[in-house]
């Protein structure tokens, strides 16, 4: 996969490659996702470095995505969720209900990839930690996603309370990629409080087993992939 630096105008291109599973097929698999970005408009209008990492992981798991009910939180431009939809998952993309312009931009990101909003993917405004009726209609999910949603410590509990509600009583997993910005930040106590447990995924082993290297995506940033489940 490329690191997404192939930028054409305001379109950022992400390329995912992999070997085909069918014997004798040497064509390989290829998926290109384009994201229209507005670099100065705000947090949700461009793709943060954690998003290609989560998308890369989903690409390594692409054969298991078909039919899964996938929900992405704080998705911004929605790269991981769009990839999951392209791989056959039933995807709901969410971002802040207080940012209608971001939600419109998210629709444009879907359309740029041939996905018709509210036909091929659902798009919904949500506020972490607020349990409005829309949130109840989101259950059940099989896979919950978020990239770079742990960037403001005062919001960690809001994110995790929403995650706990969506995972409660199910086998669903929450996969989140994040950038380590301070050694002092931790979600350990909050995981315990909300009946959750987390484990970091071993990216080196995943690279080896998938044959797709993640290192060019990460560069010298401290990026991680965490899997959280209900206890
Ligand atoms: C750092 S950006 C990450 C965007 C995207 N996931 C990515 O990695 O490119 C954080 C995202 O969380 C959304 N967000 C912030 N506060 C939120 C809240 N209280 N409820 C829901 N979404 C929120 C923002 O609108 C933004 O899209």
From TrEMBL:
Q: Which domain of life is it from?
A: Eukaryota
* Keywords annotated in UniProt: Methyltransferase, S-adenosyl-L-methionine, Transferase
Q: Which Gene3D superfamilies match?
A: Vaccinia Virus protein VP39
One record GO biological process:
methylation
Q: Which organism is it from?
A: Helicoverpa armigera
Q: Which GO terms describe its cellular component?
A: cytoplasm; nucleus
InterPro entries tied to this protein: Methyltransf_16, SAM-dependent_MTases_sf
Pfam families recorded: Methyltransf_16 (PF10294)
Q: Which PANTHER family match?
A: HEPATOCELLULAR CARCINOMA-ASSOCIATED ANTIGEN, HISTONE-ARGININE METHYLTRANSFERASE METTL23
Gene Ontology molecular functions = methyltransferase activity
Q: Which family does it belong to?
A: Belongs to the methyltransferase superfamily. METTL23 family.
Q: What is this protein called?
A: Methyltransferase-like protein 23
What is the name of the gene encoding this protein?
Answer: HaOG208353
């Amino acid at each position: 996969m490329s690191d997404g630096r192939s930028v054409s105008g305001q379109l950022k291109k992400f390329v995912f490659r992999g070997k085909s599973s069918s014997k004798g097929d040497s064509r390989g698999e290829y998926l290109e996702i384009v994201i229209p970005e507005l670099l100065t408009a705000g947090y949700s209008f461009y793709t943060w470095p954690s998003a290609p990492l989560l998308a890369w992981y989903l690409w390594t798991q692409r054969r298991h995505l078909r039919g899964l009910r996938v929900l992405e939180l704080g998705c911004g431009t929605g790269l991981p969720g769009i990839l999951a939809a392209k791989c056959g998952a039933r995807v709901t993309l969410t971002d802040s209900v207080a940012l209608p312009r971001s939600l419109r931009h998210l629709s444009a990101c879907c359309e740029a990839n041939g996905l018709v909003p509210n036909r091929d993917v659902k798009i919904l405004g949500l506020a972490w930690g607020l349990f409005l009726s829309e949130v109840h209609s989101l259950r059940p999910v099989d896979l919950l996603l978020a990239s770079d949603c742990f960037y403001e410590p005062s919001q960690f509990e809001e994110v995790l309370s929403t995650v706990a509600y969506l995972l409660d009583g199910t086998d669903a997993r929450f996969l989140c990629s994040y950038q380590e910005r301070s050694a002092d930040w931790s979600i350990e106590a909050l995981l315990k409080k909300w009946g959750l447990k987390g484990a970091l995924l071993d990216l080196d082993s995943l690279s080896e087993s998938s044959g797709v290297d993640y290192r060019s995506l990460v560069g010298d940033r401290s990026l991680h992939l965490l899997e959280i489940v209900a206890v």
